[in-house]
Hints:
Elements: E1 5-6, H1 7-12, E2 37-40, E3 94-98, E4 104-106, H2 108-112, E5 117-124, E6 137-146, H3 147-154, E7 162-177, E8 180-193, H4 194-197, E9 203-208, E10 211-212, E11 222-224, E12 237-243, H5 250-254, E13 257-264, E14 267-274, E15 281-290, E16 293-301, E17 307-314, E18 320-321, E19 323-324, E20 335-341, E21 347-357, E22 384-388
Parallel strand pairs: 3-12
Antiparallel strand pairs: 1-2, 2-15, 3-4, 5-6, 6-9, 7-8, 7-12, 9-10, 9-11, 13-14, 15-16, 16-20, 17-18, 17-21, 19-20, 21-22
Amino acid sequence: MRNQTTRRDVLRSGLAVAGLSFYGIPEWILPVLAQDEILVPFTDIPESFGSGALGPTRRVLDIRTIREALTSKDDFYTIQHFDKPDINPDTFRLKVSGLVERPAELSLAQIRDMGNENLVAGYECSGNSPRMMQGLASNGRWTGVPLQALLNHVGVQATAREFVFFGADHGEENVDFRGTSYTLDQPFGRSLPRADALSTEPFLAYALNGEPLTREQGFPLRLVVPGWYGVCNVKWLTHVRAQKERFLGKWQARWYRTIWAEEIDGEISYHETEVGRMRVKSVIARVTQLNDHYTVHGFVLNDGTPLRSVEVRVDNGPWQPATLDTATTDKYSWKLFKYEWNGVTPGEHTLVSRAIDADGTVQPSAEALEFKQTGLENNAQFPRTVMVS
């Protein structure tokens, strides 16, 4: 059985702050706990789990630390496939080319002159999963200009069907074609179909939580597509190209695909879909105790569809309603929730949450996703185990 730890216990101890994470209590969680409040320990967190789990150039959020609507820039999860460009904002230019009336190369100042709007939006990596303790997720207030304003500025031709967004990060790719392999140096690229690109939703962001983007978050300019998985939010954005043909780059057409299986007339059939809009998902992040009062805290991410409810189940009992935090009502923000856990008894308990949106879409159990053949877009319910002493 793991020991429960209060803020007072930690402050009294002589433990080095740098070592707290190895005891299940990272240093930055201290402000979460009120006086005499206890963080009830999870028993499902691997000993090796920590903020460095993805390596020195990537960051995973310890979801036990989520305590407010916005994720700080220093905690915001970070992942990339190529290098991490260092771009001079004074010489930066955003190129807009292809099927547009007025091709352009715009400075950061010219983009800022197009607008100064705020968008609260959270997202997760499509590879976020129990293996990473669901830590590839964050939420922020982005400042910038709608993509629609940029496209109106250059004028989109009627024949443009797809819009490709390239980052400054690049690397070698091996492309196999009919037995021949080609090694190409390619920038990271993702695309949006015309209807989505011309909508009011996509956003060109140059600030996060009131400060300029960090290098890790795509300084000086990035794309934010609210309600879509992280891979769609291209960082270090340097080029937007309007074209008629489908974009078949590696990160669009090959790596970010989900394979589904279904049984039709007694036979298994497979089909592929591309990673795009987020599927509704809730996660229990932590459990706290104050005297005899226990509270379960968590968050929900989805594509922006309003939520009908969030529910929590204890030890395979009935589903019980949780309460949504009124501070996280923005359409594309993650939604924080809490559940007041009554009748708690000593021992190990299993807690699980599920979210249901206004269209009636229910977050599935892991068993219901057994037909999904690949690991991306895993929005299965995530059972947590805790020890109550």
